[in-house]
Amino acid sequence: MLYFAYGSNLNHFQMKRRCKDSVFIKKVNLKNFRLTFRSKYRAADIEKKKNSIVPGGLFEISKGDEKKLDVYEDYPRLYKKYYFFYYGKKVMTYTMVKKTSFKFPTDRYLGIVNRGYKDCDIDKKYLKIALKGN
Q1: In terms of Cα–Cα distance, which of 34, 57, 38 is closest to 130?
Q2: According to the model, what pLDDT value does residue 112 have?
């Protein structure tokens, strides 16, 4: 199955450790969404926003990988699944259940996300916008 990562799972080392069968395919943009950080975990989330994009990584994952991600993402309590189509193919990602206010991520978490942006060759301008908390 196809999985869209936009936060710490962009980090190839972390993703491979968590999901041994995962294969990074390419970077893609999710349209009409924006990136933010929230919850007591100060973790990445996406929310609908017209004329905005969230850059991310498209991964091929196994059913076993999906189960591991479900545990990591605290599905269905913290995150729920969101599906969209990319060139006719169904893609799964996670979005937070409770849309709490912006919380700046920890240095450790932000370091993992930054490394993921580098691993996937994603422009950090969208990350910088998200970190302003608007």
Answers
A1: 34
A2: 98
Pairing between strand 43-60 and 23-38? Answer: antiparallel
Give the single-character DSSP code of 126. Answer: H
- Contacts of residue 111, defined as CB under 8 A and 6 or more positions apart, other chains included, come to none
Structure tokens at 98: 């409770």
Q: How far is CA 87 from CA 28, 30, 54, 57, 126, in A?
A: 11, 12, 17, 15, 23
> Can you read off the two tokens belonging to residue 24?
């990074």
- 2-121 — its CATH code? 3.10.490.10
Q: What is the mean pLDDT of each run of 10 residues along the chain (134 residues)?
A: 98 97 98 97 97 98 98 97 97 97 97 98 96 86
One-letter amino acid at 32 equals: N
> Is residue 99 within 8 Å of 88, Cβ to Cβ?
no
Cβ contact 83:91 at 8 Å: yes
Tokens of 123: 């422009």
Domain ranges of the chain: 2-121
**Closest of 22, 2, 134 to residue 11, by C-alpha:** 22
Q: Taking the model in full, what pTM does it have?
A: 0.97
